[in-house]
Amino acid sequence: MDLVRDVLDKQLVDRHGTKMGRVDGIVVELRPGRPPEVIALETGPLTLARRIAGRFATWMARLATWAGGAQYVEPCHIPWKRVSRIEIDIGVDADVADTPLGKRQAWLREHIVARIPGSQR
């Protein structure tokens, strides 16, 4: 499997098919004398910002702190053992509502999206 091609930037879906976000990073453990092992998938704005540029990640963290959502800036880790399938999207054996991703989405919906004119339709 080619991790970058087959996993990175793919849509994550929970066990019910609900979208959870995209894979923004892959956490790999390097051990002496053994092959690398995938530990988790990362998703979140800070992981994506780090891929773009370090300064952008710093700016993004400050913006989130200012907006009151600092607790939602850190990446969410999805353990590799929870990945149930890799196809067009990445299936995860979890419910989005029970994960930090669900809490992040609820916070964004309540504090950011709800303030956009016309978003309550």
Can you count the beta strands? 7
Rg calculated over all Cα atoms: 16 Å
CATH architectural label? Roll
Bulk shape: globular
CATH-defined fold name: SH3 type barrels
What fraction of the residues are assigned to beta strands by DSSP? 15-25%
Write up this protein.
This protein has 121 residues and is an alpha+beta fold. It has one domain (3-115): Roll (SH3 type barrels), CATH 2.30.30.240. The protein is built from four helices and seven strands. The chain has helices spanning 3-6, 45-52, 54-67, 100-111; strands at 11-13, 19-22, 25-29, 37-43, 76-79, 83-86, 90-92. A hairpin with a 3-residue loop joins strand 6 and strand 7 (90-92). The chain starts with a helix and ends in a 10-residue tail after the last helix. 20% of the residues are buried.
Topology of helices and strands:
Layout: H1 3-6, E1 11-13, E2 19-22, E3 25-29, E4 37-43, H2 45-52, H3 54-67, E5 76-79, E6 83-86, E7 90-92, H4 100-111
Parallel strand pairs: 1-7
Antiparallel strand pairs: 1-2, 3-4, 4-5, 6-7
Helix pairs in contact: 2-3
Protein name: PRC-barrel domain-containing protein
